[in-house]
Each structure stands twice: as structure tokens, then as C-alpha cells.
């Protein structure tokens, strides 16, 4: 009894088993709510059985192939945008190049449609189009986050390197690049949710190349609730999986990386 | 009283002032230190800065190490890359990297273990890898850091980080080393380690010069041969800037390089205490 009361006290440290119990309780509540709210003939959410059916139908329609296509698009776009963003962000400590990174970061307020319009005039291939749209948008977000990481480096760390006879380029290499690689992985992880959302949107704009976005669009057309929810769950699960994979990678590779 | 001789100027600070925005932090800081030579032994210099909190010790140190450009004035050190002219060593304005610096927050590379940090500090040295390893391991065992040699800064205690920061500069810097409050946060044993390191630096080269700040007056009197008090001239004035209000030359007073703490030393401690309180 006392332990339950503790769960309602702010800043009370919880035990591992306590956390498991709290988490399962929430899960059970959500599932019960779902079952109850989808009883009867008129309901907003599809029943668990409908979702199950939707899942099977998705699978038969090539869910795995579409998933692989989405993941490969995500990988390609992430690779190129990260490369571009890192170069631009790492050069931001140079006063002459700083406006470039600051401007790029501000441009993220431009709407997606405007840029796709111009891109469509240059790029004809659907896949290329998807990659370029994603690369442009992801870069803007990456640059913003990377700039924040770089600006947060305490002056003392820079001065410490300078006092150890590091040239300015060495300071950049040691303090900004090497000592903050773990932050880059975290920037990647934090922006992944935006990427993942944009990815599905971009795919549903340009259906020719396939992917999870196309599946959503098809399900929309038939108003198949079970399928839509099943698909959402798949997309959510894959996103969370990528998120934790990145987190585990960061903590595994960098023992000193102790934040969150 | 030890006889000694004043030789070349090793540090000349001319009319330094620093402001942040329109607030002047330190103003008109002037002093000059000479290489002191004691017949029959190698004797470096130890200079201490005392001052109440916020009087600008750390600010002055950032200028002395060339990390911050002062608003006015300059810091000059001898330029040994050039030949002496008219019996005088040409001087140059201090630049970053000329003077080793251990800051008050014991900043380290967050991505390097203790051992890697020390190896990095030695990267410019010509010695072989085996020699470097031997030197590092010797220091680590002398300073009681052997067990934590593969730990990162965020796995070290404050005192361990501080000793690492001091060791890094010992391995990397040339003749000059500035330490901002090197004794705070250390236990009695560690304080002896750092004192021994000062002694060693002093004995190893005539031109070696240690500049440190501390709030421990006894320690300053024991270790330093020159003590400056940084304070406010007009203590009541609200927008007063820090400057040197007193200089105690322990060599001239006959109190430097003494093996033990005499009543004269104690008297000096009392003097300094009241001078600090008045600034
Ligand atoms: N970046 C800054 N911007 C504005 N004011 C500053 C800045 N850094 C330091 N100061 C001010 O300069 C004054 C001197 O600071 P400094 O750190 O040099 O003091 P200190 O003598 O080293 O003190 P302590 O003994 O507490 O370390 C303080 O009043 C502080 O508020
Ligand atoms: Mg200070």
C-alpha cells in the first residue's frame, strides 16, 4: 500500500519492478478502453479483430517490401542530409561561413510545397524527387540541432584545448567534432520522428516509388479502418525501433555519453 | 636570508584592463617579474595572486595565458626564438598556447580517458612511444591516479579531474604555467602532491614560472616568492574594478624558499589578511 502511495509523490525514485508494474497497468487500461470503446455497431475505432484482419491484408499486399522501400529511402536521405549538415555545421565556427549555417537553419520555416514545386522542374525520377525533398528538409532540421549542440560547448572546453597548444583547427577537430560525435547520434535520433513523419508524407505524394506512405493512401481510399490502424501501429513500431537502436548504439559506442 | 640575483624580465604586464560590456572588471594592472637566480641551484619563480571573490583573478589569468585579449595593455614574455640584442632578450606579446593554464573548473576533454588525455598532452614531444608511456605511468603512480587511468572525466571525482588537468599542463606547457585555484577541492595528500610538483617544476629549469591563485593565505606564503593582492582600491564604490593593491616580494623580505614556517611568515599572513579585508 505504501508503495502505491509513493507512486504519487513527485521526484520519488522508482524501482525497476515498480516501473514495470506501472507500465503494464497503463497498457492494460489502454487495451481495455480500446475493447470497450469499439463494442457495439457504431464506433470510432476498429475492433482488435478488424485491426488483425487489416494487418493480414497489409502483409499479403507486400507490407515487407513497402517497409524495406521506406527504410531504404530513410537511410539514403539520412545519409546525404547528415553529410551536408555536418559539413555546414562544423564550419559554423568560422565567422565567414557562419551566416550560411544560420540562414539554412532559418529556412526550415519555408513550406514544403514551395520547394517541391521547384524541385519537380529539375528532377524527373520519382525516387530521386523523394530523396531530394527529404534531404533538403532533414538538412534544415539537422543543421538547427547541430548548431545548438555546437553553441552549447562551454568556452572553457575550447580554452582548455587552446591552452594545450592546439591550433584553432585542432580545437575544432578535438572539441567540436570528436568530443561531440555522440551528440550527433542523438541529434539524428531526436530528428528521426520528424524524418519518419515527412517520409510517409513524401511517399504518399509521389506514389510511384512505393513505400509505407502508399499503403496509407490505398487504405484511405477504401476507408478501411482496420488497415489504417494496423499500418499506423507498424509505422510507430518501426520508428520506435530505430529510435532505440540509435540510443543503444550511442551508449554502446561512447561510454562517456551519459546524458538521458 | 638566501642571496639571489635579479636577471632578465620573464613577465611584463603593462596597463592591463578588461571590460565586459560597459563594466570594467580589472583596470591598470601593471607588474614585472624577473628571473631570480640563486647561486648554486636551479630556482624557478612562484607567483601567487590573492584576492577576494569576484576581484578578477580568473579574468586576469585568462589575459596572462593569451586566451583573452585585454581592452588595453599587453602581456610580454621573452622571445627565446630570437637572439639577444644589446644584452637583452627581445620580448613578444603572449599568445594562446605559450602559457599552460589550469582553469578553476578543471575542464578536460570529455571524450578522452585520463591516459589518453596525458598522451595527447605529450603529442608534440619528440620522445618515443615507450618513453611517453613510462613518463605517464610514473606521474600516474606518483599522483595516485593509476587505478583510474582508463576512466573518462565524467567518471572521476572533482579532485581527480583537477589533478588530471594539472598533469596535462605539466606535460604540455613550456616554462610558464598558470593555475587558477589549484588547491581547492584537494585532500591533504593531494595538496602535498601539488606542492611537490611545484617544487619539481621549480628545480627543473631556471625560467620555469608558476602563477597561481588561492584563497589559502598560509599556502601562498609558504610556496610563493612573490605575492600580489588583487582588490578594489575603493572598496565602498559600487562599480570599482580590480587592480593590484599590494605586492609582497618575499625574496626581498627574506621569506622566500624557507624550509619552515617562521613567526615572520605568520606576521606576513596577518598583514595579507588585513589587506585583503580592506580591498
Ligand atoms: N563573462 C562575463 N560577463 C560579465 N561579467 C563577468 C564575466 N566573467 C566574469 N565577470 C565578472 O568579473 C568579475 C571578476 O570575475 P573573476 O572570475 O575574474 O573573479 P575571481 O577573482 O576569479 O573570483 P573567485 O575567487 O570567486 O574565483 C566578477 O564580478 C564577475 O561577475
Ligand atoms: Mg576565479
UniProtKB/TrEMBL annotation, chain A:
Which is a Gene Ontology cellular component entry for this protein? plasma membrane
Entry-linked SUPFAM superfamilies: MetI-like
Q: Which GO terms describe its biological process?
A: transmembrane transport
Determine if Zinc is one of this entry's keywords. no
Membrane topology term = Multi-pass membrane protein
Name its cellular compartments. Answer: Cell membrane
| Signal peptide span | none
InterPro entries the record matches: MetI-like, MetI-like_sf
Q: ABC transmembrane type-1 domain: from which residue to which, for each copy?
A: 67-246
User: Which keywords belong to this entry?
Assistant: Cell membrane, Membrane, Transmembrane, Transmembrane helix, Transport
Name under which the protein is recorded? ABC transmembrane type-1 domain-containing protein
